[in-house]
Amino acid sequence: MRVLVTGSQGRIGRYVQAQLEEAGHTVVGFDVTAGDDIRDPAAVRAAAEGCAGIIHMAAMLADPKDDPNDVMHVNLQGLWHVLTTAEALGIRRIVSFSSVNAMGIFIGESVPDFFPIDESHPCRPGRPYALSKYLGEEMCGLFSRRTGITTVCLRPPWVCFPESYERVCQRWAEKPESEWTPIWEYGAFCDVRDVAAAAVLGLTCADPGHARLLLCADDVMTSGPSSRELIAKIHPEVEWRGGEPYAQDPFRSLVDNSRAKAVLGWQPRYNWRDMN
After folding, report:
1. Which pLDDT tens digit goes with each residue over 158-176?
2. Which of 9, 90, 230, 241 has the fewest other C-beta atoms within 10 Å?
3. pLDDT at 276 over 80
4. How far apart are CA 203 and CA 149, in angstroms?
5. Are 196 and 80 in contact (CB under 8 A)?
6. What is the pTM of this model?
7. pLDDT in tens, 61-82
8. Any idea where the domains of the chain sit in the sequence?
9. Taking Cα atoms as reference points, which of 33, 37, 27, 41 lies closest to residue 83?
10. Mean pLDDT throughout 183-189?
11. Conformational region of residue 172, where left means phi above 0, alpha means psi within -120 to 50, and beta covers everything else
12. pLDDT of amino acid 77
């Protein structure tokens, strides 16, 4: 398959491109570092000519120094250009990178209603980046409903690179409270190699129509406490909906990745305990 990858030279994009090529796909890169502009619809359409799928990652990230107007412009109009290009060229599959931030309960925005967190949790984003990702998911859902074109929105948490594991443990050893202060991400992470694998699978899995999928490793990032112990320490007031699986595996992730596994046929390979 010939695949347009926007944001192809980003830290995650390079892994996505490599895994696509390993799987035998042909990659058409599109990245701001090469002078490409996701805000230019003609440029997006020209790059997508002859492609059968699109993986869309080009975006402005959650940097508080960024102008919120720019964040909305790049993230929403850029996605719009990808969607309208797909419709114009007859491209039937789009994998769009959203974020757990679309839910409005990460990066300290608000406390979750319940644990473990899954796709049924209400979304209440307020910050520009989070709001742009939520609105992008809504745009994809309505677009799929109208056109029948498949859109798979991936919601990764903190993406961990091979060199990150040792660095995080060193930081915790030097400053133990940094594990949950100033903000706690519920121990959620996903290795970049697993994130890339999910994106590639999104191009070829059975057609879900439109799907919003949480990506996460199977276990929590932790210096030692179990998932329930972390909850009791930091958010004892939050409703607990876990059950027997957490008795069987005390370090099971507090973000439920079962829907991504079912829809994509995906299985994360990298766990915190295996890498430390």
Report:
1. 999 999 999 999 999 999 9
2. 90
3. no
4. 12
5. no
6. 0.96
7. 877 788 999 999 999 999 999 9
8. 2-162+188-219+255-275
9. 41
10. 92
11. alpha
12. 97
- Altogether, the residues listed in the chain come to a count of 276
CA 159 to chain centroid: 8
Superfamily of domain 2-162+188-219+255-275: NAD(P)-binding Rossmann-like Domain (3.40.50.720)
For residue 71 the two structure tokens come to 């964040």
Assess contact for 195 and 98: CB atoms under 8 A. no
Q: Which residues pair with 153 in a beta bridge?
A: 96, 212
The pLDDT value recorded for residue 138 is: 98
> How far is residue 220's CA from residue 186's CA, in Å, rounded to a whole number?
8
Torsion, Cα of 148, 150, 156, 162 (10° steps): -170
How many beta carbons lie within 10 A of that of residue 13, not counting itself? 23
- C-alpha 110/C-alpha 106 separation (Å) is 7
Q: From its phi and psi, is residue 259 left (phi > 0), alpha (psi between -120 and 50) or beta?
A: alpha
Label each residue of the chain as H, E or C.
CEEEEECCCCHHHHHHHHHHHHCCCEEEEECHHHCCCCCCHHHHHHHHCCCCEEEECCCCCCCCCCCHHHHHHHHHHHHHHHHHHHHHHCCCEEEEECCHHHHCCCCCCCCCCEECECCCCCCCCCCHHHHHHHHHHHHHHHHHHHHCCEEEEEECCEEECCCHHHHHHHHHHHCHHHHCCCCCCCCCEEEHHHHHHHHHHHHHCCCCCEEEEECCCCECCCCCCCHHHHHHHHCCCCEECCCHHHHHCCCECCECCHHHHHHHCCCCCCCHHHHC
Phi, psi of 215 (to 5 degrees): -105, 140
> Using CA atoms, how far apart are residues 252 and 243, in angstroms rounded to an integer?
11
